[in-house]
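As agreed, record copied across for absentees:
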Amino acid sequence: MKKAAQKENKGLPKMRGRGAQINPSNRFDATQVSRLENTAIDEWVDADIATQYLEQEAKSLVNKVDSPDVNMFYSMNPYQGCEHGCIYCYARNSHEYWGYSAGLDFERKIIVKRNAAELLRKFLMRPAWECVPISISGNTDCYQPAEQRFRLTRKLLEVCREFNQPVGIITKNAGVLRDADLLASMGEKRLASVLVSINSLDESLRRQMEPRTTTAEQRLRVIRELSRKGVHTGVMIGPVIPGLNDHELPSILESAAAEGATFAAYTFVRLNGAVKLIFHDWLYTNFPDRANKVWHSIEEGHGGKVNDSRFGTRMRGEGQQASIINQQFKKFRQLYGLDKERWSLDISQFSRPGQQMKLF
């Protein structure tokens, strides 16, 4: 597979601002055509087309999360697909369920659930709903560029504030500061928590790995400004990739703590489904000098594979590399005071609009 991946994009112009440079076949579509290798004189070059926003009336929004590896009970995603283009993103595979590729399609065909706020309101009004926190961005980033145009995330936050429904947000986009007013008012009631994803302080690596995301400096500003407004704010280092960004773990934790972060988390890289092909192509194209070392380190962290679906180990990895990363994380998390605070969102304030009137 390594030789095929290296041949695949050899000599082809790189699409600027995109993480993936290929569109691997959709495993659910037997009729789909894709490029595997260039063998003809006339090379097949994918068009560098603009992002398309595909608006739809969704049937559901809030989903139960059964995985014990993530700290969430329910999640909601107003957008499917993500223009950020993070090369390692596990959510790429979910785009195949919509009939698209996990590669370039994931970055430039964004499904917009325009009725997201109405669906959330309907969900929260259900008598069967027993309040627990809901995560926004359990799959794709709710503050990706599409949010500037559609403002669905802000509408979701407005509904949550109306119901006193606690929410957790994970994002790597400084656009979250637009909603600092809502988050601050909810933060006063312990109804909001924000986890800012920072994978590298190296701008060169960030631009290659996460081409349409905001800079690390801007993400640190998000932590600083939200924490000053009383919003419970932390840092997510995910994923940690041995040989690429693992050495930055201490400096990211130190920088986040200095800006006001009070908790931290991390994940070890895993390349599930089509992400394996997409990441492999990206790695050997951008880092040919160390690609073999990085790839084998990822394999070593998953028992000889680059992905592990077992609960309990898939997000942390196993073996020497994963163990060293885990020990480092714990050491520096403690050193910078990111492990002391015990904090939880308040579910006791939840109430449905008009509910009090029923007492009379």
Q: What stands out?
A: The first strand starts at residue 52 and ends at 56. Residues 319-335 form the longest helix (17 residues).
